[in-house]
UniProtKB/TrEMBL annotation:
Pfam families: AAA_22, GerE. Residues 695-760 form the HTH luxR-type domain. This is AAA family ATPase. Transmembrane segments: none annotated. InterPro entries: AAA_22, P-loop_NTPase, Sig_transdc_resp-reg_C-effctor, Tscrpt_reg_LuxR_C, WH-like_DNA-bd_sf. Gene3D superfamilies: P-loop containing nucleotide triphosphate hydrolases, Winged helix-like DNA-binding domain superfamily/Winged helix DNA-binding domain. It comes from the Bacteria.
Amino acid sequence: MHEGPEPLPVDRTSYVGRDEELAVARKLLAAGPIVTLVGPGGVGKSRLAARVATEARFNDGVAFIELADLGDPQLLASTVADRLGLRDQSARPAVDAVVEHLRDRRTLLVLDNCEHLVGACGAFVAALVSACPRLAVLATSRQSLGIAGERLLSVLPLAAPGVDEVVSAADAQRFDSVRLFADRAAAVVPGFTVTDGNCRDIARVCRALEGLPLAIELAAVRLRSLSLGQIAGRLTRPMSLLTVGRRTGPPRQQTLRAMIDWSHQLCSEPERLVWARASVFSGTFGLEAAEQVCGGAGVEPGLVLDLVDALLDKSILVREEQDGLARYRMLETLREYGHDRLVASGDADRVRRLHRDWYAELTARLESGWVGKDQIAWVARLRNEHANLRAALDFCVTEPGEATAGLVMATRIGPYWGIRSLYSEARMWIDRTLALTPARAPGRVGALRLHGMFALLQGDREAAERLLAEAEELCADRTEGAYLAVVRGMAALFAFDGARARDLLDDARAVFRESGVLNGELFAAYLGALATALCGDPDKGRIRLRETIATCERMGEVSYHSLALWALSSIEILYGDSASAHRATLPALRLTGLIDNRIVEAFLVTNLVLIAADKGEHRRCALLLGAADSMWTALGTDPEEVGWLSGRRRDAIAATREALGEAAFTDARATGRAMPRREAVRVALNDTVPTITPVAGDFGPLTRREAEIAGLIAQGLTNKDIAARLFIAPRTAETHVAHILAKLGFNTRAQIAGWVVRLPERAQR
């Protein structure tokens, strides 16, 4: 179970042509597991892949993974795992987590923009398809992945008219390139159409641009300032922009370069500077960052907004809205062009340092502002800035003398790494910066401590002990020493040494309180209260947790609030009653959703499994057990690691299996395991159990979820009823029903009902 990958890219403009390529791509995917769409930059590979993915029919869905913003091949597998909704809680390689997740799924995995990671992508895809027999992979790249079983589909420029092929509008509109130009031109000049009078100029433009979609779109934008005849004339002038660029590349790349060169020449000098400087951003960026990084040295900082607006108008930048704020990005081809210009100017190091400084300052503000009412906004902001944080850290480990700044940055991001369970990535950056910094560099103790804590959470206890011991040897700061004591207390809890954990955590809490370090105090407080209860004093543990909860409520703090409620829920399960445990668990589960804290969510759903068992709600217990199974699998860890509840969990499983019987228990658990993560959380929060229609034997071509929906159709439920029963969107229910009809070759719901009725007969046969 996972929240699922990011949604498929949405076409913000109409899709023109490519019918033949769509048909061929579908056939190739049916014939083999690996298909790569190859072609030059700007030819439309990504949009074609998105179109293929939108129309694909795979039982377990489509995962579209955009790789253009990823610069480090070492992060490929962990990035794919993250986009699939997995979290690298374990110390195992991320590729293993992806393999385990996809092993038995009929999924289409789309890897978009592989060219800069072609070696890593080839090895990664080869590993996946060898271990996941039902998986299909669709890649886009400027070159093939070069692996066995790969089928290539060349994505060529759109058909463009020859010199004498167009004498009328009807002639011109036979060509996809002309129809694309006309479509994009109409967006710039309302009412623009292909006519007998302009068709030849349109044909000249499309022919000169060799049918390249990006070049055609850029040319259409120029209609804001030039006539169609002027555009056609500039493109055909001898020694004009069409001959400028990478002369060693194929003609279509020279043409694209020429088109971008032309757009560049039409920009003012300040616009060109902002274009080049903005190329250091990875993914999207905001206006404040642009003002810091792109302003100065020839660009008035107060004019950056106007210059960004001008680049948006020229289609150099694209505007997106994230969490209510406007952000900007460049198409990768345009970003590469800007980067080339920046390097050629000799200004790249200065601008990259400004970029790093902006994100270093952002992490400093995170460190000071994490505990408080802005925490939810911080998590959202850091998620949007993740690619830029990576770029800034990469600067620190590749530029001589900058590693110490990277060490401090990686440590300050600790709360974000933890919330998102990105432990392996955090440890990688800390490892790389530690290797480049002096033994007593500022921030080294904190980095070692964070590295050790994440190793501990991944079950890598040998590494955790080594890292914590080194940190303790270097530590000369009382507050940092208290943080080390908290991690040691956490390790003692994991080792079932409650008394040692309590003493360490109480001492640390006293230091934090005396020093006014609220983050540390809350950290030590909730763990110390849990340790106190485990040492035989649950009443004292409850009192301390309620104090912590009250502090968090007063401040609007979310992370420690949910953790304190989880600890209280655990104490009530062990020493109190199920009603009290339930009252603590549900608000904690709502809070985790605000910051997407997956590991706390998994702990809380596991607590609800135990609560349901205590209340005799056996089917709900089995269903939530399956949901928790998938959550823990996605995190790559095991709930048995938390020893103080593992015995209760085993007892709950045994009692539920006995109460339901093996078949019903297995079916309910499997239903829970198959639920999407958000659906499972809704079920947990609403204290309900979806109807589980026992569908015995072979499901035929249907998935378990589709068989369940088929059973509900047989009961006479409408799509709206099914959506309400299963806590899914009505549109999702409609899609499932459409898939069922298509797979079974039926036209009516009555036929589905008859199929369900006949299932027992099929099982007996």
